[in-house]
Give the backbone structure.
Amino acid sequence: MPFREINSKMVEATVVPGQKMYSQRGAMLAYRGEVSFTPNIQGGQGGLMSMIGRRVANEATPLMTVEGNGTVMFGHGGHHIQVINLAGDTLYVEADRLLAFDGTLQQGTMFMGAQGGVMGMVRGQVTGQGLFTTTLKGHGAVAVMAHGGVIELPITPGREVHVDPQAYVAHHGDVRNKLSTALGWRDMVGRGSGEAFQLELSGSGAVYVQASEEKL
């Protein structure tokens, strides 16, 4: 695993010769050794279509290519950081939440309507994420940012997980998601503006939830 958690808001990454990493611009706090940082106009692996997809989604988050031999400390905006390890599956996460990730991971974009059809697109509007989301696939580690810390909730067949769309951070695995409406205690006490919608995730995998309804 290339990331070592220094504290809840800082991680240290090991950079080795011949292997690239990608990080959000401005996320480097300090480094040791011979390490170079180069602006990446294509946003990691995924090529031209990946870049176009993010621009269509207004998600052209600038990235840096990190190479060399040494260690780099990353953090950004005082946000809490969660390290997610992928073992061949796909992580779905918003581009602006990516702090740093392995260059071995294949980056792309996914149309929100592909998961949940029309309701997938509605979910994008409700959560403010737009109509596209970023995907990272393969074997490697990803450091994502969130407000107030993150909890990982497992998703198992036959046991759906319901999440407040504003608290959703990311998910991975063979997971389907759809937006549903529900009336709960928050509606009865007059807080039913956004909480009337729930994100229902089913299948096999995990979802990451932040301890806040605030967007980055």
The longest strand covers residues 132-146. The chain has a mean pLDDT of 79. The helical segments are 47-56, 117-127, 185-188. The first helix runs from residue 47 to 56.
